[in-house]
């Protein structure tokens, strides 16, 4: 036995082990019981001694490491501090790894919209970068140029409502906001009259004519917007994408319904479509009905412009659409 065991045996009133199975006037039970008692009395005492020695060394090391005169603080559980240090290290390593992975990751592996958003977040001053051209065009073609036809300007007032509101007034307000916003995005934008002589052979990445629908009450369904593109076999893909982009963005931003059922032949065969350069993609939008939609047309023309600008940006940058809409 160890020295500690001898000291316990010398005790005139020895305490009984919690593993003791002694009974009055009887012999201890077989070897199995004696082995359990021996393990408890010997190994447990040694374990307690080693634990006490380890704690004493750790306490001494902390006392030596503490500067003299420093105020002693309450000692928290060492396990909690160790756990906090490990968690902090893991988080730090994770942040560094994620940063390095983002820097290494090729742009081709990232979705286009996500890559654009990350680039914009990294450089907010260039949030509206022109990332792509809508189609193959001749060398030197002015793809960043956009023409906006102000419906009826220079010709007549368009539809006239009973309260004196004219279609030309609505068209002019919306077109002016569209021009300013597109210029801020880096495009070369010019406003054109309805029968502007510059339309003959006009070259641009896009031409859009802005109009509004009838002042007359037709029925409760006569509310919403219409959009149509120039009919062209050589640019049918461009025309379809233009309609999808404007319909999707304009509906989402303004809350107006895409009234594709009432798109007319006059819209699809708009006179300017036959005058411009064949490589210029063109479209026409009627921003709303001057009767049931009059409130938003007159009180919030900038919101309507936001919808148009978002649609143009979608087309020019080859962005996707969440809901292409129904083709006329």
Descriptive overview:
The protein is α/β, with parallel strands linked by helices. The protein has 3 domains: 3-65; 87-122, no CATH class; 134-316, 3-Layer(aba) Sandwich (Aminopeptidase), CATH 3.40.630.40. The chain is 44% helix and 9% strand. The chain has 9 helices and 5 strands. Strands 2-1-3-5-4 form a 5-stranded mixed sheet, covered by helices on one side. Helix 5 links the parallel strand 1 (145-150) and strand 2 (188-192). The protein is globular. Mean pLDDT is 74; it is low at 1-12, 14-39, 58-74, 101-134 and 324-328.
Radius of gyration: 41 Å
- List the helices and strands in order: HHHHEHEEEHHEHH
The percentage of residues in β strands lies in 5-15%
**Mean pLDDT figure:** 74
Count of alpha/pi helices: 9
List keywords for this structure.
single chain; 328 residues; alpha/beta; Aminopeptidase; 44% helix; disordered N terminus; disordered C terminus
């Amino acid at each position: 036995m160890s020295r500690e065991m001898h000291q316990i045996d010398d005790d005139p009133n020895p305490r009984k082990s919690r593993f003791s199975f002694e009974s009055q006037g009887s012999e201890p039970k077989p070897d199995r019981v004696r082995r359990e008692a021996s393990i408890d009395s010997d190994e447990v005492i040694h374990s307690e001694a080693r634990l006490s020695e380890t704690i004493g060394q750790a306490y001494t090391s902390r006392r030596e490491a503490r500067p003299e005169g420093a105020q002693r603080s309450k000692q928290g559980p060492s396990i909690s501090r160790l756990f906090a240090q490990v968690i902090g290290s893991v988080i730090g390593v994770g942040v560094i790894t994620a940063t390095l992975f983002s820097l290494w990751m090729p742009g081709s592996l990232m979705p286009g919209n996500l890559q654009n958003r990350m680039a914009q977040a990294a450089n907010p001053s260039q949030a509206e970068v022109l990332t792509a051209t809508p189609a193959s065009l001749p060398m030197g073609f002015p793809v960043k140029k956009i023409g906006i036809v102000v419906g009826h300007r220079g010709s007549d007032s368009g539809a006239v409502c009973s309260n004196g509101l004219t279609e030309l007034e609505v068209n002019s307000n919306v077109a002016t906001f569209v021009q300013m916003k597109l210029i801020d995005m880096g495009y070369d934008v010019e406003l054109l009259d309805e029968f502007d002589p510059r339309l003959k052979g006009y070259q641009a990445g896009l031409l859009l004519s802005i109009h509004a629908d009838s002042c007359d009450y037709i029925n409760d369904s006569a509310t919403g917007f219409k959009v149509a593109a120039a009919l062209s076999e050589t640019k049918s893909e461009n025309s379809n994408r233009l309609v999808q982009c404007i319909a999707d963005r304009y509906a989402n931003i303004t809350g107006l319904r895409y009234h594709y059922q009432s798109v007319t032949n006059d819209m699809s065969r708009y006179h300017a479509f036959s005058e411009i350069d064949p490589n210029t993609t063109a479209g026409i939008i009627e921003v709303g009905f001057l009767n049931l939609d009059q409130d938003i047309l007159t009180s919030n023309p900038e919101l309507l412009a936001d919808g148009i600008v978002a649609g143009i940006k979608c087309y020019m940058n080859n962005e996707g659409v969440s809901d292409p809409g129904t083709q006329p």
